[in-house]
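Technical annex B. To support the medicinal chemistry partners, we prepared a structural model of the target in complex with S-adenosyl-L-homocysteine, based solely on the information shown next.
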Amino acid sequence: MTRRRFIADTWDRDHNTAALTGDQAAHLARVLRAEPGQTYDLVAGGFLHRAEIAAVLPDRVTFTLHEELEAETALPLHLLLAIFKFDHFEWAVEKATELGVARITPILARRTEKHLAQAAAKRVDRWRRIAIEASKQSRRTSVPEIADPSQLRSTLAAERAPIRVLLSELEQATPLKAALTAPPRGGAISAAAQASASTHKNTGEAVTAVVPESQNLALAIGPEGGWTPEEIDFFTMHAWQPVTLGPRILRAETAAVAAIAITGAIRG
Ligand code: SAH
C-alpha cells in the first residue's frame, strides 16, 4: 500500500522537523484524524522522508523526520512559457508539473495579450498552487519553481542551461528529437556546453568533460500568435536552437506537453 504523501509547508533543518500548516494541517487533523506517532511520507527541503507526527494542532501538524526515502528527481528542464489565455496556461502548468519539469518561467511575450500581461502578476500564486497540487497528485518529491512573470530579454540573459531550444513552427527548424540526440558539435550547444564545463576548471577537470549541468535544458514555447521576428533575434543572439515538433501548428499548451514528453523520453 502506498503511504499518503504530503509536501511540508515549513522545514526546520536544525531540529530535523517539518510542519504542515493551514488547509493541509486542517485536513490532516480533522479529516484524516492525525495523531502523534502515526507515520507519513513527507517532502521537506526537497527530499522525501518517512516522518512521524510529533504534535497535532488545528492549524499545525509537526513531524519528526526519519530516514530519507528513494525518490525521483525532476527532469532538469526549465520551461519558458509565453503567457497565453489563462485557462490554457493553467492546464499547461499542471501538465508540465506532472511530466516533471524543474522550473517554469511565465514570459511576457510581445504577442501576449495586453490584458493577460497586466493580470499575470496576480495569477502567479494560483499557478504556484496548481503546481503544488499537481506535484502531490503525480507524487513528485519536488514542486517546480514558478518564477514571477518575466521579460524575455532578462530571462534569456540569465539562462545558463547549455542546451537551449526554441520551439518554433518555422519550417527550417531541426526536429526536437534530433536536437536532443545529436552529439553536441558546432554552434549553440557545444559552445554553451564548453562554457559550462570551463566553469569547472578549478576542480582540475578537463574543460571538455561532461559536467552534470550539461544535462540541463531550457525550452521556450511562444504565445498563441507566436514569437515576433525581434524575439526570434534575441533567441538567436543567445544561441538558442530552433526546433520543430512537425508540420502541424500546435496550440502552445499542446506544444509544451509534447516537447516535455519527448524530452523526458530521451533524457529522463
Ligand atoms: N504563429 C502561429 C501560432 C503559434 S503556436 C500561427 O501561425 O498562428 C504557439 C507556439 O507553440 C509557437 O510559438 C511554438 O513555440 C509552439 N509550436 C506550435 N506548433 C509547433 C510546431 N509544429 N513545432 C514547434 N513548435 C510549435
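Notes passed to the chemistry partners:
Residues 167-169, 221-222, 224-227, 244-246, 248-250, 252, 255 surround S-adenosyl-L-homocysteine (CB under 6 Å).
The first strand starts at residue 5 and ends at 7.
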